[in-house]
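Much of what follows relies on a compact textual record of a protein's fold. Think of the row as the fold of the chain written in a discrete alphabet. An example makes this concrete, so a full record is given next.


***
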Amino acid sequence: MKILEQYILRRVVLMFLTALLPVLAIIWTTQVLQRINLVTDSGQSVGSFMVLATMILPTIVSTVLPFALVIGITQTLTTMNNDSELAVIDAAGAPRRTIQRPLILLAAGLSLFSFLMMGFVEPAMRVNVRTMIATAYADLLSSVIEEKTFRQIEPGLYVQISERQAGRKMKGLLVADSRDPASELIYYAREGAVEENGKALVMQDGEVQRKSPTGDVTVIRFDRYAFDLSDLSEERGQARFGAKDRDLFYLMDPDPLDKRFLSHPNDFSAELHRRISASLFPLVFAIISLMICGDARSHREARLHPMASALILALSIFWGSNYVTSLAETSSAYIPLQYILPLASGGLALFMLATNRRPALPKALAKLIQAATTATQKRLGTGTGGAA
């Protein structure tokens, strides 16, 4: 690679990282804060929470990366144009590919990186996160760790404890069970403990109140009573995985007995093609950025800032791709659109880049904007003159 190409690549990579890291940190922080209840509700340690936060990070990299590349390319090339560096490069007779080659190679490498992240790393992290959360909430004792506070274990089942002691023992238990519409049960116990396997809550020295649909209340005292938690523990400890949690090989050949696949088969095919098509975004967005600001332009030329133009086009393609994916989840007939949208956008930008054509608004829209601008200037000018 030539010295000039290395110089351009170095500046773009530096600006790319400058844009990527802060945005990644902000989005990562918001995602982590949404799961802060893992500590407050289930009593997990700070170390476990940090492990969870670390596993969340790879799941957002592939989304932020293409836009950071757009910012890196447009900001670097715009700065070089303002400093007349692009004009000097053209005047020196350097071919246009001197600017384009290193950036397209960078974008191709990032596309491959995105493909690997979305295809294998991201789903593996999603599985780990779901498994960790399900395991944390599987134990009833961890779910009611906060004293003197009602906790909803599942719809219709609430638990409160007055005091937590060493081991798995508790004092002052109150369990309200209204899951069965035929009866409402309220358990009071002076002491209790959760078995080591989490299958039962053993209560001692208490009573149970049973209320029938007719309003009759029956009170039974007990010395020892075991409240069955086996079904609850199994259900809470079992993570449910969807299409986004599966790796690329699984999406290509799903388990025919997978309940989620049987109920939503289009989700798996739509997710498979979304990952493949979305991995093209870094390359497509880089070509669009080069089309917008890859050549020397006059400072007097009135135009929207190149970064704003490139980001608007990139966001439009990104949102359009997500919309097409949602359509593909309802019907497999929309799957070709998942590829047509990025490939057509990139192909059009590549054609304009190869033929040295500059993007411009349609003449009708340009005239409308010009007329609106002229009318606004006249009004401001008239108003200013009257005030004077």
Remarks:
- The first strand starts at residue 151 and ends at 154.
- Residues 3-137+240-367 form one domain.
